[in-house]
Specification:
alpha+beta; four-stranded antiparallel beta sheet; 35 helices; six-stranded mixed beta sheet; Alpha-Beta Plaits; 983 residues
Length: 983
């Protein structure tokens, strides 16, 4: 290892040990002080001779990180101690402040002695030291082990809180881990070269939406998103290998399965450390494994040495493009081998591949250094003249440097004769990031990628994308029309004849389409290894399987009777060549828990969807033997509809930039409640109040908090909700956006839980019962206060002020996936635009034609929960219509009289709302005469629906249209998903 490289890892590890992880828990309790325990022991073990000149870099990095995230506090002029009023005993008053909402999250008082905490922490970190062949600490591996596993401790009483321990008990809105990460990132940049100047680097890869949307199957849909996530990791890996994953501010990489795989298999961190990770468990050898989650976004922001920024960006660009090219070339070689064609480099498919992949993926980057834009001056405010000059073409006289926040932050603040706040260069992170964001946007607008397909391509186009020629070993084949191609000895026909699963329905694909189509099997075989043990032909749930899962769950709930049609179906299922369908994880768990079901029942459940898909006819009126047998087995016609969900966080750019008033919080809200109260007696001057009322400045820890919250949502909660609480399949969860397939009877529950989980909104018993969802199995999930507790772990989310909009489409399983995806995008846009954000929009596509579009806000007011919300009203109506004693005729009758309502010009709005309420009450009661519960609920439901329809937030949407569409969706869901009432 070269000296500059060694210095990077030494500085990083030294920064990671400058503060103990347990600092908040031992302050004011340990006579040795927070630097007298874990820190001293670790530094003596790791650096017996000290770190010499690197100590200055670590100290400077700590100051920059601290200044970016919190003020200094006044000290006593005599003994140098912090003033008594600024001290907080966190062990006695443990409170976390949500960094994005300012909400206080009180915790239970900790009943653990300081000595026990210190001993547990010391043992934890000593156990993470990686050693070389001579038994000496391996600095690089140890730094990476500390980064990855430092925040995870297996000690009773500490496990749940450990990941969110604050860096400063007085301002508990950022964790010790973000402080250590940031300190390590700055320290390694300072130590990397003589310039000792860090820079912010932004990079993005694309295209995204178009690449994902080109899909004919759910496997294509998953493969496109997962491949883009894998490409993003290939670029991120360059930075991680050189500077460590802590250098990456966004996305946060700790706990990402692909990163873990790299740490274990390439870096060489001891495999036992990963044994408890979900992705590493032998019991998780299915597509439910987190390694199959598309969890990385297409954009990164990192702190890098300024002198290396350009070379790093170019290395990342080469890495992602080489990965795509090399993977595609290997896939093509495999395709040629399957077809029995000699892999001659002169074959046309090789030149096609090179031309079609030229410039893919598109890569855009920008970099902004701290120096010389920010000039540090000892004892003075940093000089920002150069930063102003660089920013003026983008912001003029505006931007962060002209904001009230900087006007206050740029001035020192004294308190009772002592220093309370002194700005240094770290405080200017918001201005550096702001300039970076504008530069990155400019880079995207002026850089052009090579046009694909190549202008010289003249043959027939790819069957999936329709953009480029399909790959061929003989250009003469490109002139054969699709209808005449079936018997021709094309590359794709020959390969499919020998390996039937390599393509489907005579498809002929271009380079990008080949990458997507072959990625599932390639990822498993080449990247995970054959020992992973999963059927790569059938590991993504089909739309048909997802639809029928509603009927299968009902059949299982009835004890899975096998008396009607079962024997013939079993014979079909066990015939040579018969496939088994990939079922939703929740069904699989039901099937295989205990001895409730035997082998015949399990075989039927897994084989039935595949048999029905195999024997399906294009004629909707046609009957076949398998369908008749399925009707007998299931006791009715199998469900034919499924749902597709797209949820996206609102105003994510504003959250990251922190410039929108709606996403800002005052500085005073970030202090511990005790400090806030005591400040009243000490912050007596106008400048003190100005400081407290100034917006909390954007900081690296804010960006880390956003990324960590999105990770918790995307990597942990989204999959748990979609696949454990509902019968669904997560397609991708790349931070603030989620795409998922879900059974139609779970649609409303899945949408609601995803929205609640995004912001950490509580799910009350009332809402849970209305949705019919179980939050206790397989593990308990609790939401509230901007946090989640899952399986005993405390997770910080985006907070109650963060909102998300969602689109959903209910479609027949045979509907073309491309058309369904277009409808999904439109639904999500309606939620953002027509719904005014924080809304959901459901499109109902009936096979017989016609579409219903329902767009409603999640909440009618700034409510802390989804109780009494439009979604709850929709779910309650669905449950009512699904009841055995309630007729859905109320929906039809109501839709008949709605057009005849008086207009707003003819009747005051309040009277019109009362009229609708009375008529709805009457119709619901009339159609539920045999159900006393429904009779009692009718006035409440009618009033709730009318309140939704006439609410001002719906803007120009006609109340009659809203009532009509709510009833149409509720009636359809009740008709298609009777299982809802039983859960």
């Amino acid at each position: 290892m070269s000296e500059p490289t060694q210095n990077i890892w030494l500085a990083k590890l030294a920064a990671w040990t400058h503060d103990p992880a347990e600092k908040a828990l031992v302050l004011l309790r340990d006579p040795a002080g927070h630097e007298g325990g874990t820190v001293r022991e670790l530094q003596q073990t790791l650096f017996p001779s000290g770190i010499g000149s690197l100590a200055a870099h670590v100290k400077r990095a700590d100051h920059w990180a601290s200044a970016a995230d919190r003020p200094q506090f006044p000290r006593d002029s005599k003994d140098g101690r912090y003033a008594a009023w600024t001290q907080v005993r966190f062990s006695e008053s443990p409170t976390l402040i949500h960094p994005l909402s300012g909400t206080a999250y009180p915790l239970r008082k900790l009943e653990i002695e300081a000595a026990h905490i210190k001993a547990a922490s010391t043992a934890h970190f000593k156990g993470l030291i990686e050693r070389d062949a001579n038994g000496q600490p391996d600095i690089r591996k140890t730094a990476l082990a500390f980064w990855r596993f430092g925040p995870e401790i297996d000690t009773d009483g500490l496990r749940a809180l450990w990941q969110l321990l604050p860096a400063d008990t007085r301002i508990p809105d950022h964790t010790i881990w973000t402080h250590l990460d940031l300190s390590a990132a700055f320290a390694s940049s300072f130590a990397a070269d003589e310039s000792a100047s860090p820079a912010l680097l932004s990079m993005s890869f694309g295209p995204v939406q178009d690449f994902i949307a080109q899909a004919r199957t759910t496997s294509d849909l998953w493969a496109g998103s997962h491949l883009l996530s894998r490409i993003a990791w290939q670029g991120l890996k360059v930075i991680c290998e050189r500077l460590g994953p802590d250098a990456v501010i966004f996305p946060q990489l700790r706990g990402v399965p692909l990163v873990d795989l790299w740490l274990r298999d390439e870096v060489g961190i001891h495999a036992d450390r990963f044994a408890q990770c979900e992705w590493a468990k032998d019991s998780n050898r299915t597509d439910a494994n987190p390694l199959f989650a598309a969890a990385l976004p297409n954009k990164l922001v990192a702190i890098v040495p300024a002198a290396q920024a350009r070379e790093l960006a170019e290395a990342v660009t080469r890495a992602v493009r080489d990965f795509v090219r090399d993977t595609a070339a290997a896939m093509l070689a495999d395709l040629l081998e399957a077809a029995g064609i000699t892999n001659n480099p002169e074959l046309p498919c090789h030149s096609q591949l090179a031309a079609q992949l030229d410039g893919f993926p598109e890569v855009h980057w920008a970099v902004v250094p701290f120096a010389p834009l920010v000039e540090e001056r000892t004892g003075e405010v940093p000089n920002t003249t150069e930063l102003k000059n660089a920013s003026s073409p983008f912001f003029g006289d505006g931007g962060f440097l002209a904001s009230p926040a900087w006007q206050r932050l740029s001035r020192p603040l004294d308190l009772e004769g002592t220093q309370f706040y002194r700005p240094n260069a770290g405080v200017l992170y918001p201005a550096i990031y702001e300039l970076l964001d504008r530069l990155a946007a400019s880079a995207k607008s002026v850089r052009t990628a090579p046009q694909r397909p190549n202008g010289g391509e003249q043959g027939y186009r790819c069957d999936l994308t329709g953009e480029a020629e399909w790959l061929t070993h003989d250009r003469a084949h490109l002139t054969i029309p699709k209808g005449e191609r079936k018997q021709a000895p094309t590359l794709w026909n020959l390969a499919a004849e020998r390996r039937p699963g390599i393509s489907r329905k005579d498809e002929h694909l271009s380079a990008l389409a080949m990458l997507k189509r072959l990625w599932p099997s390639w990822f498993v075989k080449q990247e995970l290894g054959e020992s992973f043990g999963i059927d790569t032909q059938r590991f993504v749930i089909s739309t048909h399987t997802l639809a029928i899962s509603t009927s299968l769950e009902r059949w299982l709930a009835a004890g899975a009777p096998v008396d009607k049609g079962a024997r013939e179906l079993l014979d079909k299922a066990r015939a040579p060549g018969s496939e088994r369908a990939a079922l939703p994880r929740r069904l699989v768990r039901t099937l295989y828990r205990g001895k409730e079901f035997d082998d015949d029942q399990r075989t039927l459940a897994r084989a039935l969807p595949a048999l029905m898909e195999r024997d399906a006819s294009d004629d909707p009126e046609a009957r076949n033997d398998t369908a008749d047998l399925a009707f007998k087995l299931l006791g009715g016609k199998p469900e034919a509809y499924y749902a597709l969900i797209l949820l996206d966080g609102d105003k994510m750019g504003a959250w990251i930039s922190g410039t929108d008033d709606a996403v800002q919080i005052k500085t005073r809200t970030t202090f511990h409640p005790q400090i806030r109260e005591r400040m009243k007696a000490h912050f007596t001057r106008t400048e003190h109040q100005d400081y407290l009322d100034a917006p909390r400045a954007v900081s690296p820890s804010r960006h880390m908090a956003i990324s960590s919250a999105l990770n918790a949502f995307a990597l942990t909660l989204a999959q748990d909700i979609v696949e454990n609480r509902c019968k669904g399949k997560l397609i991708y969860a790349g931070g603030d956006d989620v795409m998922a397939l879900v059974a139609v009877d779970d649609l409303l529950a899945c949408l609601s839980l995803l929205r609640a989980a995004y912001g950490g909104l509580p799910v009350t018993d009332t809402l849970r019962d209305t949705l019919g969802v179980d939050l206790t199995r397989p593990t308990e999930l609790r939401l509230g206060g901007g946090h989640a507790v899952l399986d005993g772990k405390l997770l910080r989310l985006m907070g109650e002020r963060a909102t998300a909009s969602a689109g959903a489409v209910i479609a027949h399983h045979s509907a073309p996936l491309g058309a369904v995806l277009r409808s999904l995008r439109q639904a999500e846009k309606r939620a953002k635009n027509r719904g005014g954000r924080d809304a959901f929009s459901i499109t109902l596509l009936k096979r017989g034609g016609g579409a219903t579009e329902l767009t409603l806000p999640w909440r009618l007011a700034d409510a802390p929960t989804l109780d009494d919300s439009p979604m709850q009203a929709l779910a309650a109506l669905t449950r009512l219509f699904a009841g055995d004693d309630t007729s859905r005729k109320a929906a039809y009758v109501t839709q008949g009289w709605l057009p005849h309502l008086p207009s707003a010009a003819q009747m005051p709005r309040e009277e019109l709302q009362a009229l609708v309420t009375r008529n709805l009450t009457y119709q619901i009661k009339r159609q539920s005469a045999g159900d006393p519960v429904a009779q009692a609920q009718a006035p409440l439901l009618a009033d709730k629906l009318a309140s939704v329809a006439f609410h001002p937030r719906l803007g120009d949407t006609s109340p009659a249209e809203t009532v009509r569409d709510v009833l149409a969706v509720a009636e359809f869901l009740a008709r298609e998903s009777r299982a809802l009432k039983d859960r």
